[in-house]
């Protein structure tokens, strides 16, 4: 028997990606999709690549009919909108994977600082599991509410977890230079994200501070066992998908490249989606496109002593919808990779 | 029990795409992959997006060991190389899906005219089935040797078959203006296909005559019941995947757009991979990316009387590897869409 | 002494391109630029690539101060807005190069049919010169009002003029399959033109009829000496700049490729901006990028008898701002190529 | 009277860019261009965007005829090839701007370490001026031999010079995360740089050490007045042109963003090609495309104390050919911006 799922906010890129993956998940049935702009119309009007799914018709968020018997709801809504819906869903007995930022930060004051608004459901924060299965699998398994990580944090945490947890690097000197494809900016009409503005126009943005910073710091602090801060600078790539994070680190010990690789290898030995590349190979966003994989590479610069860890994911898959499906699989006791088997699309 | 497959020429784009699809096909086991350049090395050295498949190790074509018990071989070799291998495979009792041009043309003289060399296995031409399941399904089912269609011909034949077979259009005035992504040019080092030469550099090529022309004419002539010729002009798009063919046609009758759509709809009613878009929607290559779908659109220009049929496919999937898998499914009595379920990757 | 120019609508792509060219024109001084959205602010706020031009400050269209002594105004406004401004400018004694569609069509009824609104200044239509210098140089030289051609029409007219004027081709069978970069769609926020929607997503649009059709027909009819119609199908390329038009034609006579080339060569012998490529070379949009050149290529398909003429321009230069500057040079008796000397930017 | 220039290696991207700029330089005449592959043929065969320059015909390097009366030669040859040619040119009395790496490093031992070969003309190293006019203008003015800086070093040195020279930042903690367009990799046929491999495939490369590192260190050490080392990690962008360097720095003092900007502003006050963006604007590669400008931005992260300086250039212009022309202008007492006036091409 298939579990019943709802996707709230199905006409954004994350929503569309959830449909792409869940429509082919063998233990799932999509029974409810919402879109305010396309309410009452087939989803394929908004997403012609889903032309083969004529049966999916969008509803408004306000139309709660049919939401009663949902086993799990994926909230692919903007922050603020999400925390307005989640309490209702939980009250219905529906488990929730929330893809917004609303339940990722444990501390509502930090939420307020970075998002400029009070949290509307602070009582739910203590129970929300941070949905990075590689770090929080058992919490996720039993959670009613899973906060799916941000795309940048996913790429950074997978790169740094083995090193911070092992105490191998200086937590005072963490520089993260990240680069993301444009799909991370969403699907709303915008001048800044027109093809003409982006093509050939690589640039940094939010250099003075990006909202994913406190999320990265929260999780890295947990790993390091002490409060730490990171310098995080995001950039916008002229490509639709993919994140590459270049992490510049100071090791506390001298190790060879092979030894650093071995540390990563050992940490992720049993993880289906994290792959440490062999020496001489550097991660490329195109090599994980459309898949739930994370590729890691490590280099040590013997001249200066700096250690560099490189990490790539598809921001819409391991950075959003794929990880959400992975979380659902964990929550419902399914094989963790179900529905996520497809290999990367290259070229 | 899974059937055993070999992929000859696994490190080109078509070969890599065959691996991507067949590695996830539930009734298939890849037991043999070849690459001259990477013989003896893991396939993932050539294709880092296949890092998760360390067990696939390339062999040389000359190393026939292990080829004895193959159920079906996919030849993703260049033309000429292919017709040197196919007779051996058939003699072993292996069925063959050949993705080169070598067995598509029924007439060896036409082959010689367009490919500039004598055919080395003309005795096999009569039995080779032309592998477009939508038109030749029963031949394919029983064939030892299936000639997988070219990418351009696939896009054109699916657009024109309903109209030519129905006698609706003038077979004397067929203008096909096609545009292809760069992956169609293969993976060999080349100055012409460097990123820097292609980005922002749309152009036509082989304007005086492209080798896919006789293949298109052969199949369209069969449909029309008479010899015909087409004007076919290919262009190169600054994108990796996708073909769009714009077919300019003279109708023999006056019909509305809705009626033309209905003709296409009816023809493809039971076809899982051909989708006729609703009025007002035009096919886009991004809406079939990574999938085996073909999207069709039709417009009638009442001012001039010209009919336009637009067709898009992913040249590496429905135009090559996906169609080859579809053919294999037909040959072995499997459900035709097995292993081809994944939805297009957008954006 | 420099002539004084105004640019109305300076923050769209065409306006920005006018600034790029005119700021370096040795006989011109930009004294007035307008933008409703950026009125009162430096132009470089809207266009950081013009950071080196801090002295250009945007005004509102309504602020007519400073417009009195303008020698020539470039209207880079949307249609409708343009014909509201032009009468005032002319009344001031300012000559006008209008880059909108408002004064291109001689017949106000045809304007109404295609633009869905009455023309507001039909009295000016008889005197408006159609600003393609290669065809209408002497009219332009003496005109108060020049209607700068559309980007598609420029590419098509330069390709077909020698053949239609010479009577070499059948005016009943003109098929024009054009492909344009995204900058042609303007700079307004839009979902359809987001990078993510365009990358890898080649498609046709307005297949049932595009507004540049009557403009093409008007000018081709003049050349042919008889009313004719064309089938014109535009497509959208995943690149910012460039138009390639593929013209499929029926010759009335049998000629070799070299002879067709010679016909084009002869026609454009003295034209500084139109270049007929040598045999075996096909025009590419990247080879005219940023320049005012048009490259032409011609192929004859001896099997079918179809003649193909290929034409590329940069839609923002020869298709808009560059041609406008060329027109201005003609109008003011300057050397026609002044300010347009720069060579194409490749890669 | 125009000075006579030669361009050695005219069919690579840097060579093509030199032709683009020098063909329009009012005080220069290109009298000699070389290409081994195209010797004896018009340059426009190799570069169709130069179709309008039919008079430029390539010669072989070995053909020294016509080289006698050259005023200045631009060597756009690979390293090693360059230092074989330069002594001959100097002996002829020709001044040289060398765009290879051969004369940038003052210490032949460092050259040997990074380039794996002995220097063939170490006697010339002491007199070679490092061709960054913003730092070494007077040396350049009188030099026979100017070593044009690498593209990455140009972007980094312009970003860091004011801060290191002023003693404002810690020279022990310099992390430079750079991203370059593909044209930096040259025009040779290559699988790695095919469009299909690059599109959507952002990645780092030479993470363990790139040859531009010692050049950066040499010049920064001069500025700091002490030997220093940098951690430099280059990445490859899916775009043809542009470099963005993100420099992560530790200030020695607490300053506001406005104060940091003011430091940069003051340093570059009289420089025509270096522009410090206003607060809230971040440099984008598209905003300097095709021009000789460098845009700088600065951000201070008050939470962590890190200072970030961002720098963009067009790698083929300010990072190569444009800077070479700027150097020539300095060497011959011309106005420094001559031939470099054109504004960036956007979009």
In short:
The structure is a homotetramer of 347-residue chains. By secondary structure, chain A is an alpha/beta fold. The first copy, chain A, has ten helices and 14 strands.
How would you describe this protein?
The structure is a homotetramer of 347-residue chains. Chain A has 347 residues and is an alpha/beta fold. The first copy, chain A, folds into 2 domains: 3-127, NAD(P)-binding Rossmann-like Domain (Rossmann fold, 3-Layer(aba) Sandwich); 152-316, Dihydrodipicolinate Reductase, domain 2, CATH 3.30.360. Helix content of chain A is 29%, strand content 21%. In chain A, the strands form 2 sheets. A 7-stranded parallel sheet of chain A has the order 3-2-1-4-5-7-6, with helices on both faces. A 7-stranded mixed sheet of chain A has the order 9-10-8-11-14-13-12. In chain A, strand 1, helix 1 (13-22) and strand 2 (28-34) form a beta-alpha-beta unit. The longest helix of chain A has 15 residues, at 151-165. Chain A is globular. The model of chain A has no long low-confidence stretch (mean pLDDT 97). Chains in contact: A-B, A-C, A-D, B-C, B-D, C-D. Chain A binds chain B through residues 13, 16, 19-20, 23-24, 47-53, 183, 199-200, 240-241, 275, 277, 281, 284, 286-291, 293, 295, 341-347, and chain B through 13, 16, 19-20, 23-24, 47-53, 183, 199-200, 240-241, 275, 277, 281, 284, 286-291, 293, 295, 341-347.
């Amino acid at each position: 028997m298939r579990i019943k799922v709802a996707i709230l906010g199905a006409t954004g890129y994350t929503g569309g990606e959830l449909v792409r993956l869940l429509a082919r998940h063998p233990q799932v049935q999509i029974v409810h999709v919402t879109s305010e702009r396309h309410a009452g119309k087939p989803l394929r009007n908004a997403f012609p690549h889903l032309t083969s799914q004529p049966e999916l018709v969008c509803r408004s968020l306000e139309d709660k009919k049919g939401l009663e018997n949902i086993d799990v709801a994926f909230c692919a809504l903007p922050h603020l909108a999400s925390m307005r819906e989640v309490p209702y869903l939980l009250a219905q007995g529906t488990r929730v994977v929330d893809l917004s930022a609303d339940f990722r930060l444990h501390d509502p004051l930090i939420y307020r600082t970075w998002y400029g608004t009070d949290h509307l459901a602070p009582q739910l924060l203590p129970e929300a599991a941070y949905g990075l299965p590689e770090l929080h699998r058992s919490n996720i398994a039993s959670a009613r509410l899973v906060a799916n990580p941000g795309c940048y944090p996913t790429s950074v945490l997978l790169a740094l977890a083995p090193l911070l947890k092992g105490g191998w690097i200086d937590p005072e000197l963490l520089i993260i230079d990240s680069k993301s494809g444009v799909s991370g900016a969403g699907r709303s009409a915008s001048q800044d994200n027109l093809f003409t503005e982006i093509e050939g126009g690589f640039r940094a943005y939010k250099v003075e501070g990006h909202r994913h910073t406190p999320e990265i710091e929260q999780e890295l602090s947990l790993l390091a066992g002490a409060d730490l801060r990171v310098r995080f600078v995001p950039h916008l790539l002229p490509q639709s998908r993919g994140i590459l994070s270049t992490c510049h680190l100071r090791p506390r010990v001298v190790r060879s490249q092979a030894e650093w690789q071995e540390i990563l290898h050992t940490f992720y030995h049993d993880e289906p989606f994290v792959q440490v590349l062999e020496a001489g190979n550097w991660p490329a966003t195109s090599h994980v496109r459309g898949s739930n994989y994370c590729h890691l590479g490590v280099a040590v610069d013997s001249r200066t002593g700096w250690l560099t860890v490189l990490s790539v994911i598809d921001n819409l898959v391991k950075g959003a919808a794929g990880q959400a499906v992975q979380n659902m699989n964990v929550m419902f006791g399914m094989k963790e990779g179900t529905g996520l088997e497809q290999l990367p699309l290259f070229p």
